[in-house]
Amino acid sequence: MERHLILEDGTVFSGQGFGAPATTFGEIIFDTATSGYQETITNPIYDGQMIVFAMPVVGADGIHAEAYESINPKIRGMIVHDLAEVSTNRQRRMNLDRFLKQHNIPGLYQVDTRKLIRHLRETGSQKATIVDVVDDHARDQLQATVLTNKQVQNTATTKAYSNPGRGFHIVVIDFGLKNGILRVLGDYDANVTVLPYTTSVDEVLTLDPDGIILSTGPGNPEDLPESVLTLIRVLQSKVPMLGIGLGHELFALANNSELTTLPAEYHGMNHPIQEIISQEMIYARQGRGYVVDPDALDTKKLFVTHRDMVDNSIQGLRHRDFPAFSVQFFPDGAPGPLEAKRVFADFFETVVDYVQKNN
Amino acid sequence: MVNKIVLDQASMQRALTRITYEILEHNKGGQNLILVGVKTRGEYLAHRIADRLEQLEGVKIPVMAIDISDYRDDRLSNHTKLGLDEDDRVNIIDKNIVLVDDVLFTGRTTRAALDALIQIGRPKTISLAVLIDRGHRELPIRADFVGKNIPTAQNEKIQVRVKEIDDVDEVEIVH
Amino acid sequence: MYKRTTDENLKRILFLGAGETDFGMQGENDAAIYQVLPILKSQGYRLFLVDDNPYSMALESSEAETIVSTLTVQNIKSIIKEKQIDAVFPGFAGIRGLRLWQQIISEWREEDGARPVGLGMPDSTVELLNDSAALFERLESAGLSMPRATIVRNQAEANELLRDLELPLLVRAHNPAAGTTRKIVRRLDDFEDAIDQVMSQSLTGEVVISKAINGLKEISILVLRDSNGNCMQVGATEDMDPVGIHTADSLSVAPVLTISDQVLQEMRSQAFLVANILNIQGPVHVQLALNEKTNQLYIIKVSPYLDNLTNRMALMTGYPVMLVAAQLAAGRVLQDVELPDSYHAKTAMMEPVMDHIVVKLPVFSFGDLKAAGVEVNRQLNSIQKSVGSALGFGRTFIEAMEKAIRAAHFNNRSFSPKYMKNVSDDELIQQLIHPHDNRVLLLVEALRRGYEVDELAELTKIDEFYFYQLKQLLKIESQIVDGEASQELLSVAKQSGLSDGLLARFWQSDFQSIRAMAKQSGVVPTYKALEPSAGEFPENAHQFFATFEEENESEPVSDKSILLVGAGAFRMGDGAAAGYVTSVVLSELRKLGYKTVIMNNNAADASLLPHLSDKQYLEPLEVSDVMAVVDQEHPEAIVVAGNRRKLIEALVALGQKVIVLPKEKHQPAGPESDESEFALNIFYDGEAAYPLVLTQHQEGEVRLIDQDVFDADLSGIKLPYSGVYQLIWREKRTDWPKEVALPNFAVDTWLRPMPFGEIAFLSKILQLSLIRLVVRSWKGGLDGSDLEALVAHMPALRGSDFAMVSDRTDFNLHLKPDSPIDSTRFEMGAKMIRLQEN
């Protein structure tokens, strides 16, 4: 059935509906990666967003148990050029269309996605809606809709839980954690405790962590309460810390630095990232609306460790006084290049040092 | 028994990178810092750490090389030659010295290096960075910055190779 | 590691040429060398090139000192000494270049002086690549898996191995007495019997056991690595057919569609590891096999040099692979690579991403050979049988595949339901299991006959995705065949890559009416830019493909442009000479001040190089595709090779100004083994004919005769098109005379266009670019000075000690023909040799 995408600026794109026949509102962004659609649509960072895929054929690999980044996808829509109808999971029970239906997410295919992306790269992300009929009512609804800024509350855990292992004790502060991080921690046999971001410093320290991870998450970090920054400031001085994505942005905020936005968000995995100290180049999955403002970086506290070599955005920070560092990109390789996983290797080496020196 | 590569080029680079970050963490901005590499391979490692510090902070940290082959207390020697190259002598008084070596084993090499250093002046601090700590210490010496801990048997040998002279960066356990 | 490793002392670089075109070498190496010469020259290098390929474009480049010489160790060594070469660049000559360089290294003696360095990889890697056991061990010790072959002598040893390796296993006799049996053991119960049986066939009682990887999915990854060890993935393609069918003979698709991100990333990491182990500076093509049940990966081939994937990847992604690869080999790091202004400043470092689908379809010559009475083994296996390939670009798999089919065959008869009707059910099953060249058509036919997707996937080891797509195609087919011509159906058909001509056939209409209807109802192509950022950045793209969506990104290049219709896929008999001719035409038109537009779909063809024309359309070459581009560009004239008669007629009928590049429909048959064919080669400027030189052709070899012909009387010759031609006569003799009696040209000879191969050869030997003369004659004849210069040059057109030989192709290896193949008519490639060397 023909359905339509209306952008806040009034532009309309038409295509065929798939997934759920729902009418939804969200912020529309585009993604240039050619693999990993399942990981992307289930990544909690995309809470409240509609994603346009540059990859022209989506769905040919089906839906797999090992490719979920969260159980419940929180995206508001998926816009593709061609939808491949296959069921390749072992039970032959699931494909992309059925998956979106199950989670009440609308999809749109047979869209001139290249035109849409070329449009969005000029306008930046904006509000959008997927509807059956383009009329004044639909346009008014879109204009009137205020998108939530409570994405973290929406996706992060409110209860502590553990993912036991026999190795180091790693505490993950959850802002909308993706499974990839837990998967890598599992590779290191870490003994993981996931805590809500509202946990107090004392509660964290009582657990005697060997290392702390500030997780990825959706939305604008400045919408989070000040208590989160205090938590980071205290913990970073006591235990090795790694911030990822939103966690990296919070790490910067906690250290007297500010954030900014770039003209267009970047969601993909083809930008080279330079590790400044070694001049080595890696690629990693990125998904970012906010970046640390290089002009508002407190260089007495932090220094830049990584940069995106295309737009020069800050991709990594390190504290001058503590074994605490952070990356803007996603080092968990789910989806994305595996060379980025070295960030975890560095983190665990730091944890080893910390543990050896404090025993 | 087959020899085993325990550190390849990539992980060797990572280890040096981490050591550099830690040195920076303990020596604000690298000020007043001098790197002293224990010849032969420690010298190359010291230069690499200095290169890394330069990339990060834009400052050139002085690097000296020290040859302790005459200072080892477990070897016969005439104790006449000073271990430092004449050209490389810098006033080390009141400086923070980081001694860089490839492998920390019994600790005797480090002790010899300390002896040589103290003979030419009194630094503010001396700390020790090693690429590999393989255990079996015979002296009360501990590294401040360790690239990688590799537990070994006494009869094993650790061979560190650096690109500058060995064409390749790697660490191998030789039986 | 922070310093640029570009060696300041490195000034004089010798490129090894790739030699004659052959199976798997369709001119892409030469195109690549031709492309990178200008940028390296601009960076201050003195460049030299040695090759013996008569169809080479690079040999005619003014950016390098070019040397025609047979590619032997001895010759290269003397060139190195004479030209004081600092560095040799073997990698752009593919596997041949690497082998030659290996030989040069091993045969270099102290008295030869200092040996130049090899660019692209250290000597230790060259050595390692020459020792497959050592390479295997090196890769395996780094944790990579390869299908390992082990020799066992008895059942106990075999059982021991069984515990290490999982089934299925491939078992065959070592030193077999006669023809060997290969047994694939799938069940534990069969293992012992298989060993017994195979051991009895071995003279030495030895059995080779290896992991059977036939039937696994095959993927190719192209990596670039710089001297600092930075790696990037240029792209990956998946083969539709499983391991066991040569990758060149399989349909392949990019980007990879049916493999999960997790597995793709693991493949990428393994490919990077290979590049690092080998210390490559430049491209590495890594082929992997994937067992989808276990996610186990095997490295099946490593090609650390330029091969057909390199050029194809450049064309498919819009990423300038060759320009980057050459600079990496010369020592630059990715961050410092320089590119022409038309690219986004950071292009070299960004991994290209595709927002379109490209299907590569192999082209086989079985039909042409059969028509000439030669039967060959058509069953596809691990030895390449295809002679070329064509690409289809689209935004869906179906669109890209249909366009690839049309590009490969100049039509999509595959789409006609009648085409495969005559295949019996038995044959169908046989060919599903043992595939032939008609692979895709057979799969469609199987679906048409009601085979289930699961069943077909099991029989063919082809991913179910492809069957779902082909089913979709069948659905579209029946909609179109059963329906009336309508805007809606037309739109569906065009989005599926079908041509106006085919629709006309389905709807009992004609091309003109379908075209009119399409225009009227707005079903017109939208051209999408082919660029490596998938729309992320504003681009200044020159490459486009057609699809049917909303936005058209292509603006006409000029109101005075000329459109060239390229030669399409490499075919036997055409040689890479067609690419040579098209490229020279483009280059000369440029010189004359025209804006040029090229249409083509063959990645190996130099004519698609971005710097040769103002715009490139990557499209099939049927009249419907050409007219769509004409509607877009409004060219002043369209240049078409004379063998495309139907296309020429159709374009003329549509009122287009067509310039015909004279060419026979097929390469002429060569002389019999007991005769010689003589030719007076002439140039016709549209009004008069000018004699050039006399040539003699015996089976597999062409030589010049050192005899004056410039006063030959050609006054009676009138031809429809200007061009270069030959007046032919044959004599029963097999000697190579110094002089021949000239026949009465008006009576005793016949006339034909000069074959493209001989144009290329003579241009090089005579130092006279025949194609440039021809192009200049199109615009109202040559101007007086051109003709004067030609006439003045004619006495200098004499014999040469170079001959062109074209009988060196190993047809027995690739095709197993039942009778000898005429190497003139079915030429794969040719080389120039100095006569005293022969």
TrEMBL record, chain A:
Gene3D superfamilies in alphabetical order: 3.40.50.880, Carbamoyl-phosphate synthase small subunit, N-terminal domain
PROSITE patterns in the record, alphabetically? Answer: GATASE_TYPE_1
Q: Per UniProt, which keywords does this protein have?
A: Amino-acid biosynthesis, Arginine biosynthesis, ATP-binding, Glutamine amidotransferase, Ligase, Nucleotide-binding, Pyrimidine biosynthesis
InterPro entries with a match to the protein in the record: Anth_synth/Amidotransfase, CarbamoylP_synth_ssu, CarbamoylP_synth_ssu_N, CarbP_synth_ssu_N_sf, Class_I_gatase-like, CPSase_GATase1, GATASE
- What biological processes does GO assign it? 'de novo' pyrimidine nucleobase biosynthetic process; 'de novo' UMP biosynthetic process; glutamine metabolic process; L-arginine biosynthetic process
Which protein family is named in the record? Belongs to the CarA family.
List the NCBIfam families hit by this protein, alphabetically. Answer: CPSaseIIsmall, PRK12838.1
* Stated name of the protein: Carbamoyl phosphate synthase small chain
Q: Lineage of the native species?
A: Bacteria, Bacillati, Bacillota, Bacilli, Lactobacillales
Identify the coding gene: carA
